[in-house]
Amino acid sequence: MTLSRAWVRWTVGWLGAAALVTGPAFAGKSEASSAPVVTVAFGGDMIGPVHPMNRAGDPAFAGVAELFRKADVGFVNQENAVFDLNRFSGYPAAENGGGYPLRYAGHAAELKDMGATLVSLANNHPTDWGSEGLAATLRNLAAAGVVAGGAAMSDAAARGPVFQLTPKGAVALVATASTFPPTAVAGPAIERHAMMSQPRPGISPLHVRKVRVVPPPLYKVVLEAAGPTALRDGPDMRVGDQVFRQGDSLGSLWEMKPSDRDALLDAVAEARKRAGLVLFSIHAHETAGEDEEPAVPYHPVFLQHANEAASPNDPRPASFQVELFHAAIDHGASAVARHGPHIISGIEIYKGKPIFYGLGSLFLDFGGARVLDTPSGETIHVPDIWYESFVPVVEYQGERVRSIRLYPVLIEDKAGPRSGSPSLARGERARTILGRLQALSAPFGTKIRINGDIGIVELE
Q1: DSSP 3-state assignment of 360?
Q2: Using 50, 70 and 90 to split pLDDT, how confident is the model at 394?
Q3: How many CB atoms lie within 10 A of CB 46?
Q4: In Å, what is the CA distance from 300 to each residue of 95, 185, 296, 311, 410?
Q5: Residue 1 and residue 220: Cα distance in Å, rounded?
Q6: What distance in Å separates the CA atoms of residue 17 and residue 172, rounded to the nearest whole number?
Q7: How many angstroms separate the CA atoms of 86 and 71, rounded?
């Protein structure tokens, strides 16, 4: 299939799905008592597994899969490209050299079998194998009945919501990423010489930048040291990838590109008109931390940040995330799910809706290795906390959240037939993960009660 035909198929498919959903599918507040109970299970990053996901042959994984299979909707962040390399006619991308999250075409059916029915492709890996790799992944997921959002064959389709139609109504997903290679961004068709190009496949981006705030005396020192490499950027100064701004005290802040932010919020509002529940998903490695990883020789800093931000194991969210997530709920989102850092973060209940600031990973298969050399030349050291995660299951009735249950998860960190696969944590290990969630959620005013091996978020 050429990209042109693929684009037509995906555009028609998306428009068809949108046309089926003409209004909110679940009851409003006045009808909440008679509305059906809808459950959504949330999982974090899918990286691997290298081996098949076999519920029958892996009872430990089957326990986790059952959380998704019993839910009306199962959401995960799908970082794997999904196609058979021996049938692939494309090429590995220059930025990542053909990233390691690659699964065979049959993996799409395994996702559907485990109950992962609604996935985000907006992250830093969908174009590891170029536009052709993304197109192949989209085709294979669709063929298996998995609804994918956040990446598509055009910018309009990537930006827009996708819908999973359930017997109880429609659930929408609006997905984006703030951590991504520059060439991963979807784009529109372009006219040249009275002819139109195809749109550019890619992700729905949220461009962000860190601004370093410095007092006037230090600002002057930076300006003098930078010399001719300093470029004016409105009231700011740019030196390479770094942006400096004068302020009263030393610090930093994050800014979102206004047009990206507004497009995402418009998509949430549009989705809310068509679906009873709207999930907002973002792949964001950015944290509140400041500790930069060592530079990779001959590798631009902006490309390094496309895969790993500063302080990747800091559980505190970057400031723009709090602002954006609140705005998403204000525009109609029923839940916000952040993924990217392979660690868990806190939970906030904002206007009665959950914000998961860090879902961690669901699958994380590095074959037991703890030191990884990426295709782009970075070295990653994998800590123990990357292998501890959780699956929240949220019950809705109408617009109201009835309950939020937290299931702690352990990911197999050793090489072998279960490498990278999840299992439900029990006993002391479960209490350790839930205790960490309690501590991380406390700054947001969220209380979590531990009942055996399960955490229960206390709702007002």
Answers
A1: coil
A2: very high
A3: 28
A4: 10, 18, 8, 18, 35
A5: 57
A6: 11
A7: 35
CB burial readout 263-272, b (16+ within 10 A) else e: bbbebbbbbb
The helix/strand/coil state of 50 is: coil
Buried b (16+ CB within 10 A) or exposed e, 300-318: eeebbbbbbbbbbebbbbb
Query: Rounded mean pLDDT of the chain?
Result: 90
Q: How many residues does the chain have?
A: 460
Burial of 55 (0-12, 13-18, 19+ CB in 10 A): middle
- 254-to-191, 282, 289, 318, 325 alpha-carbon distances in Å: 35, 16, 12, 7, 14
Dump pLDDT digits (tens) for 182-232: 999 999 999 999 999 999 999 999 999 999 999 999 999 998 999 999 998
What's the pLDDT tens digit per position in 296-311?
A: 776 667 666 777 777 8
Q: How far apart are CA 202 and CA 205, in angstroms?
A: 9
Q: Whole-model pTM above 0.70?
A: yes
Cα end-to-end distance, the chain, whole Å: 52
